[in-house]
Amino acid sequence: MNDSNTINKGSLPGLKEKRYLQKKAIIGFLYRMGELSKPEICRLTNVTTPTVSRMIEELIDEGWVIDRGCGNSIGGKRPHVFSLNPDAAYILGVDIGREYLRVAIFNLKNEPIEGILEYSSILEEQDDEATLRYVREKIDETIGRLNVDRAKIKVAGFALPGLIDREGTSYTYLTYEQPGIKGILEEMLQIPVFIDNDSNVMAMAEHTFGVAKDVNNVLCVSVNECIGLGMILNSKLYRGGIGMAGEFGHIRISGLEASCHCGKIGCLETVSSGRAIENVAGKPLQEIIEAARKDDISAIDLLHRAGEKLGEGIATMIHLFNPDMVVIGGEIVQAGDLMLVPVQQAINKYALARMRGHCELKMSNLGVYSAILGTLMMVMEHLYDDTECEYSLY
Ligand SMILES: [Zn+2]
Questions:
Q1: 149 pLDDT band (50/70/90 cuts)?
Q2: Which residue ranges make up each domain of the chain?
Q3: For 224-251, what is each residue's pLDDT tens digit?
Q4: 3-state secondary structure of 91
Q5: Cβ atoms of residues 325 and 359 within 8 Å
Q6: What is the per-residue pLDDT for 2?
Q7: If you measure from the C-alpha of residue 162 to the centroid of ligand 1, how many angstroms do you get, rounded to a whole number?
Q8: If you measure from the C-alpha of residue 260 to the centroid of ligand 1, how many angstroms do you get, rounded to a whole number?
Q9: Where do the HTH marR-type domain residues begin and end (predicted)?
Q10: Residue 45, number of CB atoms within 10 A of its CB
Q11: CATH topology of domain 9-84
Q12: Average pLDDT in the 74-95 region?
């Protein structure tokens, strides 16, 4: 790993380490809150004004912080406010899907530099070695096309479909044992890497940027080729015991008898996933949705049945978690009301009135980019909320 990104805390003598941690905290607060005045920074960090002044001066000299001049104030003297230099460091986000590979480089204002680049995926066609080579090639290509200084990319976040545990070992795709895929990517990129299931990071994106912004308890169901679930409970992503919570696609639904690709029978995924819908119609989901929009009754029926069973599953989740909101995301979003209406009808039918009355049902407005936006939020959660995390942008 790159020395400039990793700090061995043991090697820093007392005061130097304390300063480093305080400056790291200032960067964290500025990242989350945008602009802050000196008195606000003193209050948040619990550090005296002269020390904060000195550290801010150092951070300005080092290119991390910008003095934005006088901010707004109601009466009295307006204090200077400070913000992060958005180009002081970058975060690499990579969403490795079954049908696409998306790569973005984010600045410290959460903006992808010149947008998100999309490539085709080879995840299901090629072996692990070839997939990794391809991913590396596309990351290099993106950095080249965006003309970004590679040394400023301090950390990376990856989203992958399938089972991934807390330690970053993947059990469905790129199933390396020792070191797991996280370790292999770190070696490949020479920066710290965080990795999580795509549904988990999608939920983090919905909670930060999407329709579920600042909602405390949200269940985010993604319907693509498979069905995923990310749960935000008490405003935190719930990962479960070993990090695999939310395998919603494989819950048993009444009346279903078809075999699932997981080896079990009657899973929700055998009727409501993109793959199941496509198998019945014999054409891509996109075309089925378009046909339904043009009044094709069999396409409407197919989406209706998928929505009904999805709603039945969601009703169970409403009983278990009492969420404030359920968000439906993924490719199915394009079906709009053709999907949302049968889901809501099933919730009305199967969930208790008092609980369903409290729970809003919404379609995601982040489109296909929710997972890659989520990789950024996952990285920031690790860097700034996890006290055990030894990495930092600074
Ligand atoms: Zn299954």
A1: very high
A2: 9-84, 90-201+371-385, 213-365
A3: 999 999 999 999 999 999 989 999 999 9
A4: strand
A5: yes
A6: 41
A7: 12
A8: 5
A9: 25-65
A10: 19
A11: Arc Repressor Mutant, subunit A (1.10.10)
A12: 88
Of the candidates 157, 153, 161, the one whose C-alpha atom is nearest the C-alpha of residue 121 is 161
DSSP, collapsed to helix, strand or coil, labels residue 220 as strand
Alpha-carbon distance of 13 to 15, in angstroms, equals 6
267 Cα–ligand 1 center, Å: 5
Structure tokens at 215: 């909602």
Domain covering 213-365: architecture: 2-Layer Sandwich (3.30)
90-201+371-385 has CATH 3.30.420.40 classification? yes
Per this entry, what is the length of the chain?
Answer: 394
Distance of CA 275 to the CA centre of its chain: 23
How far apart CA 84 and CA 66 sit, in angstroms, is 6
* Ligand 1 center from residue 170 Cα (angstroms): 18
Identity of residue 350: Y
Task: Please check whether the two domains, 9-84 and 213-365, share a CATH topology.
Answer: no
Residue 378 has pLDDT above 80, yes or no: yes
pLDDT in tens, 337-352: 999 999 999 999 999 9
Give me the percent of the chain exceeding a pLDDT of 90.
Answer: 77
* Lowest-pLDDT range of 17-21, 221-225, 232-236, 302-306: 17-21
Radius of gyration of the chain (CA): 23
Instruction: Report how far ligand 1's centroid is from the alpha carbon of 258 (Å).
Output: 10
